[in-house]
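pasting for the record
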Amino acid sequence: MSHVLAGWQYSGDFTVASGLPFTLRVLGGTLDIQRGVTGSLRANLVPGQSLYVANPTTKEWFNTAAFCQPETTSTNPNATCVNPADSTFGDAGRNILEGPGQVTLEMSLNKTIQIKEYRSLDLRITANNVFNYVNFTSLGTAVNSSTFGEVTGAANMRRVTVQARFRF
């Protein structure tokens, strides 16, 4: 029994990361079409609005009322979208919104069992995202999209693999 339980090797890593930066933009804007590019028109900031909500959810990760399309009014009836006279490209800065953070734990157990002088059996159990924590990866950042402000993607969930290799 001690031969089976002894000799296991453990390895792993734990990652905690802040969220990636996101840029709020407008898709299909007239200026973009005239210039032959897409997604380069940025949103406008609505004065006095906070970028973040107190308790973010997958349906509202950030304050959508804080952004609007240039030269239009906000969906928030109490705030209007102000466009500076010298800019028609939107006044929201690049990468002003921080996305969701990441937490992952990967682990691996392996053991080599010597069978004869030149023969052995390698066993390995590998687990990615051990605690099955949901890591959101992308946000709806296009002001004129139906998914604006929502979480639109998630990273891989837990995955466990078992490998056996006979060496001869």
